[in-house]
UniProtKB/TrEMBL annotation:
<keyword id="KW-0732">Signal</keyword>
<protein>
    <recommendedName>
        <fullName>beta-glucosidase</fullName>
        <ecNumber>3.2.1.21</ecNumber>
    </recommendedName>
</protein>
<dbReference type="InterPro" id="IPR019800">
    <property type="entry name" value="Glyco_hydro_3_AS"/>
</dbReference>
<dbReference type="InterPro" id="IPR013783">
    <property type="entry name" value="Ig-like_fold"/>
</dbReference>
<comment type="similarity">
    <text>Belongs to the glycosyl hydrolase 3 family.</text>
</comment>
<keyword id="KW-0326">Glycosidase</keyword>
<dbReference type="Pfam" id="PF01915">
    <property type="entry name" value="Glyco_hydro_3_C"/>
</dbReference>
<dbReference type="GO" id="GO:0008422">
    <property type="term" value="F:beta-glucosidase activity"/>
</dbReference>
<dbReference type="InterPro" id="IPR036881">
    <property type="entry name" value="Glyco_hydro_3_C_sf"/>
</dbReference>
<feature type="domain" description="Fibronectin type III-like">
    <location>
        <begin position="635"/>
        <end position="704"/>
    </location>
</feature>
<dbReference type="InterPro" id="IPR036962">
    <property type="entry name" value="Glyco_hydro_3_N_sf"/>
</dbReference>
<dbReference type="InterPro" id="IPR001764">
    <property type="entry name" value="Glyco_hydro_3_N"/>
</dbReference>
<dbReference type="Pfam" id="PF00933">
    <property type="entry name" value="Glyco_hydro_3"/>
</dbReference>
<dbReference type="GO" id="GO:0009251">
    <property type="term" value="P:glucan catabolic process"/>
</dbReference>
<dbReference type="InterPro" id="IPR051915">
    <property type="entry name" value="Cellulose_Degrad_GH3"/>
</dbReference>
<dbReference type="Pfam" id="PF14310">
    <property type="entry name" value="Fn3-like"/>
</dbReference>
<dbReference type="InterPro" id="IPR026891">
    <property type="entry name" value="Fn3-like"/>
</dbReference>
Length: 716
């Protein structure tokens, strides 16, 4: 349809029909079973008639179900406006890929685009039109369970990866490519900065930091064409996002130039009441519609109040018209008016969902996301060695992560299953050990296996419910039963390789004496195969942390791109009056960008082709990277800068570019980066974006703490 036809359609709608379009409810309202309908229907005051005016539905899946519902809906909808189906396809539909924090550790835009394309295809054939992804909230606090949904702590990495998600989901032709789906970027804004790492908590953040660091992920997704934005549950500087006019109108619409649909998070409009900025559902509706929220997810403030508010002259009907038009445009962009069932297709669903091809790609991406944190010559394993495989993660199929709605753990591959495909010299625990308790029987068996073995693979971590939404932890250590197991095993066999399944950076001091540590995150359906191939060196690890691991929870929030203080610790660590703790270090245990390989990569000869950079010109920074080993591997070469003197304090380092390179054994390669004036711009105190003339340090290395450095001058 053309835009003027959509405008005409809005004009033909009654106020009731328009307000109905702004409501989103869950799929169970449309269930065929009457008893399921009565519960939620009666609780939310939704009548049978209302169902056929509602604009969108959350959580429908399955081609036949979506086709059935759409058919029934269109039969009863007066103007034949199709129903829109949305869902949380976060890191895969049924083929589950690693959690987003792990995807961040791939630093690989192609892989993320590929995972999003596959997720979109599986979802689209199952009847879904929109995904609530990517979540691009920048994160600094591993106590917050939702760090698992983010790609990490860095604005640049988040920004390039968020674009890759959107490209993968939406393709370059959303309308005609019925196997693509629309992308909803979330949670706008700054949800990752919740105070104390406690979910749903307040966010108090300077506008400077908001603009410079936190907006980058959202703004890049928008530039890439993301069709929707979801508001966040939190306040931003005293005003909940869902009723925050400045945030949604000034920042999102005006500055970031977003002209798509804004949807509230689940219940967030009504939550304006407990937040304490609205006294009633009527007030909440007024605040949210004035702020620019188009769709209200799962509460009925709009439904119950917008008509009255308009009739009583408290809000303009044009506000509702604009929201409805945006929703109809989204439906039109998806081609739903012409093709209301879009990609839904039962045959394809059977053939492609969880296909061998999708599983193979999931394995490849899991491998790229796994980070080797420590290796004192214990890895890779050889299939000649006798290896004990014990610990709660050994047989665990709880490896999909908290946002794997349609993923089934019984379709996942455990570590033991993966290892058995490679070696027959394994001593495998017969127990499905708990992550929280250790029986005498389990301990005794573990000790006896460990004693006999050359090396021990001890699989530890978190269960998936321990991260994700509403899963903040104040203590980010491993549970005591796991530490006890580690300590006892260490006494009989010190050659311990700890593998970890978890959704956040952890405090790993309790297993500090492990000779090897492999961070596998929640690696998805093919996790056990991916991890096993890394342990045996069939795949050479290449993942690099996208979020720092603190040395202690007391350092949190900890992130590499912090500001210098007036009393920097590094200048004189012995001095009392410097910025430090009395009892713990200032440094991350494993910093942003860190990750080992079975190769040894060395960096040398950092150089710049011109020590002075002029506007409209560029300089080339080059470094030689050598693979000093007899196996090939992948290295992620990272370039950071530091603006030595700025109008506002600049971070001690900022990632500005990176290159993922493949090196043959013993290969020495020159890697070059271009730097230009635009890359040196930042947000000034008056919120304008520009660069300062003067000296810059450029650092190139294998992570945010190990690098070579050189200086240049910006002379515009
Ligand atoms: C609440 C979560 O915050 C959000 O990320 C999700 O997309 C919605 N629920 C819908 O399930």
């Amino acid at each position: 349809m053309k835009r003027d036809e959509l405008i005409k359609l809005v004009k033909n709608m009654t106020l009731y029909e328009k307000v109905s379009q702004l409501l989103q409810i869950t799929a169970d309202f449309y269930s065929e079973y009457a008893e399921e309908r009565t519960g939620p229907l009666s609780d939310m005051g939704i009548t049978e008639d209302d169902l056929y005016g509602v604009g969108s539905v959350l959580g429908i899946s399955g081609a036949s179900e979506s086709i059935r519902i759409q058919k029934e809906y269109l039969k009863k909808n007066r103007l034949k406006i199709p129903l829109l189906f949305m869902a949380d396809i976060i890191h895969g539909y049924r083929t589950i890929f690693p959690i987003p924090l792990a995807l961040g550790c791939t630093w690989d835009t192609n892989s993320i685009e590929e995972m999003a394309r596959i997720s979109a295809k599986e979802a689209a054939v199952s009847g879904i039109h929109v995904t609530f992804s990517p979540m691009v909230d920048l994160v600094h606090d591993p106590r917050w369970g939702r760090v698992m949904e983010s790609t990490g702590e860095d604005p640049l990495l988040n920004s390039v990866l968020s674009k890759a998600f959107v490209r993968g989901y939406q393709s370059d032709n959303l309308k005609d490519n019925i196997y693509s789906i629309a992308s909803c970027v979330k949670h706008f804004a700054a949800y990752g900065a919740v105070s104390g790492g406690r979910d749903y908590n307040s966010v108090d953040l300077s506008e400077l930091k908001l603009r410079e660091q936190y907006l980058s992920g959202y703004s890049s997704a928008i530039q890439e064409g993301a069709k929707l934005v979801m508001t966040s549950f939190n306040t931003v500087n005293g005003i909940p996002s869902t009723g925050n006019k400045w945030l949604l109108k000034k920042i999102l619409r005006e500055d970031l130039k977003f002209n798509g649909t804004i949807i509230s998070d689940w219940g967030a409009v009504k939550e304006l009441i407990p937040h304490g900025v609205a006294a009633s559902k009527r007030d909440a509706a007024k605040l949210a519609i004035n702020a620019g929220v188009d769709i209200e997810m799962m509460t009925t403030c709009y439904k119950e109040n917008l008509e009255k508010l308009i009739k009583e002259g408290e809000i303009e009907e044009s506000l509702v018209d604009e929201s409805v038009l945006r929703i109809l445009e989204l439906k039109n962009d998806l081609g739903l008016f012409e093709n209301p069932n879009r990609g839904a297709n039962e045959d394809l669903e059977k053939n492609i969902v969880l296909s061998k091809q999708h599983r193979d790609i999931a394995k490849k991406i899991s491998q790229q996301s796994i980070v080797l944190l420590k290796n004192e010559s214990v890895l890779p394993l050889s299939s000649k060695e006798l290896v004990a495989v014990i610990g709660p993660g050994a047989h665990s199929l709880d490896i999909l992560g908290a946002w794997s709605w349609k993923g089934k753990s019984n379709e996942a591959v455990s570590l033991v299953e993966g290892m058995k495909k490679i070696s027959d010299r394994l001593l495998i625990t017969k127990f499905n050990q708990s992550y929280f308790e250790l029986s005498d029987e389990e301990l005794n068996e573990s000790l006896s296996l460990a004693k006999k073995a050359d090396k021990v693979v001890l699989a530890l971590g978190e269960e998936s419910w321990m991260s994700g939404e509403a899963a903040s932890r104040s203590n980010i250590c491993l549970p005591p039963a796991q530490v006890e197991l580690f300590n006892k095993i260490k006494e009989v066999n010190p050659n311990i390789i700890v593998t970890l399944y978890n959704g956040r950076p952890l405090d790993l001091n309790s297993i500090g004496e492990a000779k090897g540590i492999v961070e596998a995150w929640f690696p998805g359906t093919e996790g056990g195969n991916a991890l096993a191939e890394i342990l045996f060196g069939i795949y050479n690890p290449s993942g690099k942390l996208s979020m720092s691991f603190p040395d202690s929870v007391g350092q949190v929030p900890i992130y590499y791109n912090c500001e210098n203080t007036g009393r920097p610790y590094e200048v004189n660590p012995q001095e009392k009056y410097v910025s430090k703790y009395l009892d713990i270090s200032n440094y991350a245990k494993y910093p942003f960008g860190y990750g080992l390989s079975y190769c040894k990569f060395t960096y040398s000869n950092l150089r710049i082709n011109n020590p002075v950079l002029k506007s409209n010109e560029k300089v080339i920074v080059s470094v030689d990277v050598c693979n000093e080993s007899s196996r090939c591997g992948v290295e992620i070469v990272q370039l950071y800068i530091r603006d030595k003197v700025g109008e506002v304090v600049r971070p001690i380092k900022e990632l500005k570019d990176f290159k993922k390179i493949y090196l043959e054994k013993w290969e020495n390669r020159t890697v070059s980066f271009e730097l230009n004036e635009q890359m040196l711009r930042y947000v000034h105190s008056d919120m304008t974006y520009s660069s300062d003339e003067g000296e810059f340090v450029v650092m190139v290395g294998s992570n945010s703490q190990d690098y070579l450095e050189i200086e240049f001058l910006l002379d515009k």
